Amino acid sequence: xxxxxxxxxxxxxxxxxxxxxxxxxxxxxxxxxxxxxxxxxxxxxxxxxxxxxxxxxxxxxxxxxxxxxxxxxxxxxxxxxxxxxxxxxxxxxxxxxxxxxxxxxxxxxxxxxxxxxxxxxxxxxxxxxxxxxxxxxxxx
Length: 140
What we know:
With 140 residues, the chain is mainly alpha-helical. It has eight helices and no strands. It has a single domain, classed as Alpha Horseshoe (Serine Threonine Protein Phosphatase 5, Tetratricopeptide repeat), CATH 1.25.40.10. The chain is 78% helix and 0% strand. Helix 3 runs antiparallel to helix 4 (56-69). The longest helix is centred in the last third of the chain and has 17 residues, at 107-123. 37% of the residues are buried. The mean pLDDT is 94.
């Protein structure tokens, strides 16, 4: 029996939440992106996994696809901003500002982004570029 893309995605996300290593999940999310190339959430997750694994160029490509597919996704924008910081790209502030506006419009997104950032620090405690983006999104 073949799993649907949705069930593959849900299973992979649960594996991530259970603490499975990002390196083990990258091929799974790449497969999901190959099967469903217009799935912004899959590209967003793949970008995050690449960022956790110190692969900012791959993260940037995945995050760009996610933002192109769904410009209203603040997590995709955050991932793109972090990847841009890590690859020395310019123009990342527009993505941070847009994510900030989206979080203002929808308080649930604010909580999701904050939770995602905390997850990032739990997996990669000294993540400087994420700390910088967090300080822009959530100024003390």
